Amino acid sequence: MLDPALLRGQLAETAQRLATRGYILDTAAFQAIETQRKQVQTQTQEWQNLRNTRSKAIGASKAKGEDTAALMAEVAGIGDRLKENESQLAQIQDRLAALAQGIPNLPHESVPVGSDETANVEQHRWGTPRVFDFAVRDHVELGARKGWLDGDAGVKLSGARFTVLRGELARLHRALAQFMLDLHTGEHGYLECNIPLIVNADTMQGTGQLPKFEEDLFATQVGDTRRYLIPTADVSLTNLVREDILEATALPLRMTAHSLCFRAEAGSYGRDTRGMIRQHQFEKVELVSITQAVDSFAEHEHMTRCAEIVLERLGLPYRRMLLCTGDMGFSATKTFDLEVWLPSQNTYREISSCSNCTDFQARRMRARWRNPENGKPELVHTLNGSGVAVGRALIAVMENYQNADGSIAVPEPLRVYMGGAQCIV
User: Fold this and answer.
1) What pLDDT, on the 0 to 100 scale, is given for residue 62?
2) 26-101 placed in CATH 1.10.287.40
3) Does 366 participate in catalysis according to the annotation?
4) What is the DSSP letter of 215?
5) Judging by beta carbons within 10 Å of its beta carbon (0-12, 13-18, 19+), is residue 93 exposed, middle or buried?
């Protein structure tokens, strides 16, 4: 959530910044509720002061042996009014909280203003796309040659946007995930975690998936208990610090996890229906960092660089994009997307998204660190990024390393995970 001070003290300016990302804050409605809150809160404080004053008067009268019946009746009446006011105040605060839960993070001043991906700004490129001397196949054609990539089996088992991998292609997929984990833990200093794939509503709310994006989530219902399948491992990883106060020596806390991810893809019907580009179930190696505010933008660069190194080690051409205000995720203040080259599409496609969420998620989660200079708890900053999406990395490897006969060369860093194989045929 945003800092309430921004909404109370800088409402117009905050609304203007939110408008750059396509969110229109109803300032009149917010101001009306906030005015009501102030009135009820002020009145409540006045009743509390009056009750305290009358209670002291009762004590003084009793000490003098005077009749206190009238004063005691007045105090009882004040108590009833206080209960009514406190109930009303709680309802108003719930309305304000519900409104605040639906407001996205503010874009950082370095983020370009724009309404969609056409306003994203390219930062740099790495690698030169391969020039083929034969007709390029896409990953679906390459995978279908031996039945290693089977969308029909996925439909039979689960429905559209599910895929079955078999044989050496399934092994290559596993090799990619293992390579990424070993790189991030061994060289980049991330702590490997194995996390729950099914979480409660508090966890989803902590990172901003609820209440706004419930239609994008898969959910389970057992008895009266509703839980959600994670759309990405950063949901579980980030919430590990929920309601905690971390010591300064623990920061930055860098964590990684390889997990299944589940997305309903609401609103994406008809997009990328061929193959594995957009699936309901997929795998990622996720990166999460918990930092002090002063370090979060440097950490953002570090995290993005870690994801870039994955693609460079695999020899996959990519470009880094700075997302505009209208293309960022709900919780992000600044996002870099890495887009990998796909020969069959003759273009770059997203394979990693690295975001700095500043204190937006931490405020929801009440996640803090203790500042040793003053001994007081302060909100942490949270960051997350794909390091990288395993399925899309598989697609990129298949297409960029394909041979004329349909076989696929194995990138050198993956061969140790493939029994030394240099090619899958």
Assistant:
1) 81
2) yes
3) no
4) G
5) middle
What is the number of residues in the chain? 425
At 29, list the tokens: 């409605």
pLDDT of residue 195: 98
Answer whether 365's CB lies under 8 Å from 238's CB.
yes
pLDDT of residue 164: 98
Give residue 159's identity as a one-letter amino acid code.
Answer: G
pLDDT computed for residue 155 by the predictor: 97
| Catalytic position from the list 308, 363, 392, 399 | 392
Q: Which of 278, 305, 313, 319 is catalytic?
A: 278
State the Cα–Cα distance between residues 334 and 115, nearest whole angstrom: 15
353 is catalytic: yes
Q: Is 392 a catalytic residue?
A: yes
- 350 catalytic? Reply is yes
Buried b or exposed e, range 28-64, using 16+ CB within 10 angstroms: eebeebbebbeebbeebeebeeebeebeeebeebeee
Q: Which residues of the chain have pLDDT under 70?
A: 267-270
pLDDT at site 81: 83
Out of 319, 350, 370, 407, which one is annotated catalytic? 350
Delimit the domains of the chain by residue range.
26-101, 117-424
Catalytic pick from 21, 51, 54, 263?
Answer: 263
d(C-alpha 194, C-alpha 379), whole Å: 25
CATH class of 117-424: alpha beta
* Phi then psi dihedrals of residue 123, to 5 deg: -95, -50
Reduced to 3 states, what is the DSSP secondary structure of residue 55? Answer: helix
User: Which residue in the list 352, 353, 355, 386 is annotated as catalytic?
Assistant: 353
Let me know if 87 is a catalytic residue: no
Between the two ends of the chain, the Cα-to-Cα distance in Å is 51
